Amino acid sequence: MVHARVIPCLLMRNGGLVKTVKYKNARYVGDPINAVRIFNEKEVDELVFLDIGNPGVPAIPNFELLAEIASEAFMPFAYGGNIKSIEHVKRLYSLGVEKIVLNTAAADQPDLVSAAAALAGSSGVIVSIDVRRNWMGKYSVHVAGGTRDLKRDPVEYARAVEQLGAGEILLNAIDRDGTMEGYDLELIGRVCKAVSIPVVAAGGAAHLPDLRNAAGAGASGLAAGSMFVFHGKHRAVLITYPEYEELERLFK
What we know:
Order of helices and strands: EEEHEHEHEHHEEEHEHEHEHEEH
Number of domains: 1
Number of strands: 14
Low-confidence stretches: none
Shape: globular
CATH architecture: Alpha-Beta Barrel
Largest sheet: 8 strands, parallel, barrel
CATH topology: TIM Barrel
Helix content: 25-40%
Structural class: alpha/beta
Radius of gyration: 17 Å
Strand order of the largest sheet: 1-4-5-6-7-10-11-12
Number of helices: 10
């Protein structure tokens, strides 16, 4: 692989794949195992699964489904959602999950980031940072599916999670999620300049040039959801992924 990593980011709820717009209005788009088989054929670099659960309903990771995904996936994959303890982390690694993704847990239990990094190395720990602009245009980090404002600047927060041991940041622009209006390049640029660990951009990708623009802003990985599960102006569900040669030309 010579280009920036291009990563389908798949949301799950109740065992199915869904896609949201600005973290709301989850729409069912298919079965995760079928999606994995299609992405196997398309030889994707890696996958990210994020279980967004049901708001206000306590849950744990769906270990049975993740074991099935691990048995089907030819590529490495990361998983986030409902990870609340180091026991969860150990079990996920034992199932074959290459990287765990911490979001709300990283804010509420920062020691869990360090403990997971000590267990498997920083390269196995991603902290997902969800960011929204307020009415004055100021960025702020949110957790709990975008429902809780930490009132922390994403640059300061990114530096803090790097210090805790995160090996990678998944940077989500909530206002761009599912809109297919392009990545938030200003946000990507600010965070990438502040940390030395890889930053994977997410939120807003619709076309190949969007991937190139985010890489130009400093992202070492480009995550997308709608771009890889919807097709056409009516957003029909169709799983796609660029050919390797297309990506080579894009990043040349």
